[in-house]
Design goal:
By secondary structure, the chain is of the alpha/beta class. It contains four helices and five strands. The protein has a domain of about 110 residues: Nucleotidyltransferase, domain 5 (2-Layer Sandwich).
């Protein structure tokens, strides 16, 4: 039991009058300690911890046997981004063997791949408008190819770029030997 003692102990201090002994007042702190532990327990049990935030990804359904084959996307509407080492990417438009634009090495962020995606998307949208096509269905398609030398942060960064630039159609596919050779040629593999 805890006590709070006040006073000087009631001893004699020299000559003079004899005073009667006064008892020291005491305060029992047990109830306050119990209350503190009850409050701590209550707040621990009722607090919700922060939930980890995740990125929404739209994953395709498993194809069925009787599903029709999807149409091929024209080369001028595609943009392939190959993730390399050292926070660098190589991009090209069209096919690997016969690129329409590129290949060009770029970095992440506003002055890097973001400007490219915005400009490429605008070019595809302008061409679709002149042809009278639906921009939602006939927009740019971005193909993401992470390499073994890229890291998780790079992949999250490129997914953030897709969200920032408003690209509706993008896919992550396996890297090909031709893409690895492209990375080696540009010294980012």
């Amino acid at each position: 039991m805890a006590e709070l003692n006040t006073g000087d102990g009631g001893g004699k201090k020299g000559g003079g009058k004899v005073r009667s002994k006064k008892s020291n007042p005491g305060v029992d702190l047990t109830a306050m300690v119990d209350l503190a532990f009850l409050l701590i327990t209550f707040f621990i049990l009722t607090t919700t911890l922060s939930k980890p935030q995740s990125m929404n990804l739209a994953l395709p359904d498993e194809p069925k046997i009787d599903d029709p084959v999807p149409p091929e996307t024209p080369a001028w509407r595609t943009l392939t981004i190959v993730l390399g080492a050292g926070d660098k990417v190589v991009w090209y438009s069209g096919r690997t063997e016969e690129p329409l634009d590129g290949p060009v090495v770029a970095g992440y962020g506003k002055k890097g791949i973001r400007d490219l995606i915005i400009n490429k998307k605008k070019g595809v949208d302008d061409r679709n408008k002149s042809m009278g096509k639906d921009l939602e269905k006939e927009g740019i398609t971005v193909i993401l190819k992470p390499s073994e030398k890229s890291n998780y942060k790079n992949f999250v960064d490129i997914l953030d770029e897709m969200a920032i630039t408003g690209v509706k159609k993008y896919a992550t596919v396996d890297i090909t030997p031709a893409d690895i050779k492209l990375l080696e040629t540009n010294s980012i593999y």
